[in-house]
Predict the structure.
Amino acid sequence: MADSSECFNIGSTVSCVTCFDEELQGEVLAFDSHVKLLTLKSPASSGRTSLCDIRMVNLSYVSQVTVLREAPVSSLPTLPSLNLTKLNSRAKRSIEEKQRLIQAMQSGVSPDGQKLFLTINKTLEEVTWKGVNILVMGQVLITPPYQSDNVREHKDGKEVSALQLNYIKKIVDKFHKDQQSMSMNNGTSATPVVEVQAVSQ
């Protein structure tokens, strides 16, 4: 077994001999002394230069470890900086959308309306709830019972083209066709829907 008190610097090149007398050699990508795990990167066994092999070596099953080349201290890669403003904005939008979805469910939106909302949201990002109505791109409103006949231009929004209106009607029609075929095939839905019961405080 290799000496558990040894520490390996990232970027160093090491050679390990396993308890099966197999020799592994590579660059240290990570080392966890608590679980005695060493992660090595070596040239691809397939011979392709664009690839590499990554091996996780349990040092409990290694009889010998030799450091072939120690990595210089300054060779540690710098981590990219995070755009915290962008991350906070994305988190805030996500929370607001989840809250609108919860409000819509609590205000009596049917399961079909919930499923349609999630289906449209997979294709188009600008989908929100306006009460029990689905508002798409701030221009198109889908009212209950959420059929293609219920797709119309939103009066308070920007002017919508006939092409956009027809596109959303096609999404709604396809959604209902898929729902019918699923109910005929197995009676289950591919999209999970949560029904919220009104709870008094």
